[in-house]
Design a protein that fits this description.
28% helix, 12 strands, Arc Repressor Mutant, subunit A, 347 residues, 18% strand, Nucleotidyltransferase, domain 5
Length: 347
Amino acid sequence: MNRYKATGRLDGVVEQSRRPHKSPNKTAPEIEQKVIELRKARPDWGAPKLQVLLKADNIELPVVTIHRILLRNALVRERDRHQQATLRYEREKPNELWQMDFKGMPPELSSEVLPLSVLDDHSRYIVGLRAMPGTKGEPVRSYLEQTFIENGVPEAMLVDHGTPWWNVNHPWGLTTLAVWLMKQGIRLHFSGIRHPQTQGKVESLHRTIERAWRIRGGPADASGWPKWLHTIREEYNNVRPHEALDMATPASRWHPSAKKFNDHPDVWDYPSGAHVRSVNPSGQLQLANRHYTITRVLAKERVMLQPFAEEKIAVIYRNTIVREIDLRTGQSFPVSFNPYRELFSEA
């Protein structure tokens, strides 16, 4: 009514904006510009990670405020929005378990480069990230040897049923590279077939790498991948805050393994009183007048036989279960089980 009296016109009573004339809590333009600059420098980082960088510059902003600034400036794409995980599983200490896998690449690049990732389960620290020319065993072994020399050896490693540590075209499964890892005292765990979520942490890393590549741009050619991956690894380990670590960096939660690489592994000592047999040159064991296939890559190696159910025996090489024997049917099977459930804790 007051506005109508002041103007004498009906359009004087049209609803006006409810935006306050003054906004004492509005983010200062220079701070908003700082948020924009940080986002453009790291376009694959969200508000929680940018908040950590702002705090380092003594700028305190709530995550929701940072996110609103990004929205106002059209710096958030719909496909980049996702809900956070509500439940996570991790090993209690660094180097209890490393996850290892190749990152899939588009067809036009896969013939030139396949990044191989090695990630610590507890700290999410990238122990190794190398542009490999393929999945052949010898180059992978050479790189892993270098990784072990520089970072120590983990207690266990989680891998999938893929080359070069598993032969999908052979019923015996294991490869010479897998046995080489076991000889370092590493307990190997194989993820569920067609269940990549078993290796969730390394798969998450691969999504982060792909997102950085998609948004920032990758190297111009195959020769640029080593440097590009090195830059990503350094940032991921030492700069990028990790939400699963309460916004700490992986490097702050990781340390090298005290277990050193041994180029000439010692003879393995099985528990006293254990039933130990040698695999014959054909990769078989003879039990109860039957020959059971184990694997030729363990020819002449000593294995431990551990009963675990009626008429069933687990074949354990060093500290990894490699085969299951069914005495009733006379068959043997490769072992693939949940990596977080040990059949024999003492093995």
